[in-house]
User: Which sequence fits this backbone?
């Protein structure tokens, strides 16, 4: 079980790695927290990630809160993660309609995981009208995006193959 102070330590660790811990003074660390509270989308996304890794339902509700804040500011990774949580009912009631909206926004914003998810949704008619042309369109975009990052694309492709069996 993780308490609030542990989350704060984890958050600082993640932020240090993200922004370079070696050059951060205490004032700069405080500035990162202030940025999160002031609405900096990437910091909000990171907090959402931390809460999403928790085991309690309240952790998942907090993750949704932070993902929603970041997603509302255009953070495409937060949009995707929010979509996953809404689709699966983690920390909230399942809402495929809202999940689809966030997946589409993330896909249009360039998130390849969302592009792939949208392609599957169009292909299966899940949460959206079945449309094989759109399914192929989004699948091709996801592949092209993953191809632009070969290591990432290979890892994600292998993961997809394992999950689609």
Assistant:
């Amino acid at each position: 079980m993780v308490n609030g102070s542990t989350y704060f330590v984890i958050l600082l660790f993640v932020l240090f790695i993200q922004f370079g811990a070696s050059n951060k003074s205490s004032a700069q660390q405080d500035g990162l927290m202030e940025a999160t509270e002031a609405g900096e989308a990437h910091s909000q996304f990171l907090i959402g990630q931390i809460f999403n890794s928790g085991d309690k339902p309240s952790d998942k509700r907090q993750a949704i809160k932070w993902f929603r804040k970041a997603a509302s500011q255009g953070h495409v990774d937060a949009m995707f993660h929010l979509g996953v949580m809404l689709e699966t009912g983690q920390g909230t009631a399942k809402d495929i309609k809202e999940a689809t909206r966030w997946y589409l926004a993330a896909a249009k914003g360039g998130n390849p995981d969302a592009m792939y998810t949208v392609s599957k949704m169009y292909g299966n008619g899940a949460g959206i009208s079945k449309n094989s042309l759109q399914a192929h369109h989004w699948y091709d975009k996801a592949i092209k995006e993953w191809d632009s990052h070969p290591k990432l694309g290979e890892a994600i492709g292998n993961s997809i193959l394992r999950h689609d069996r």
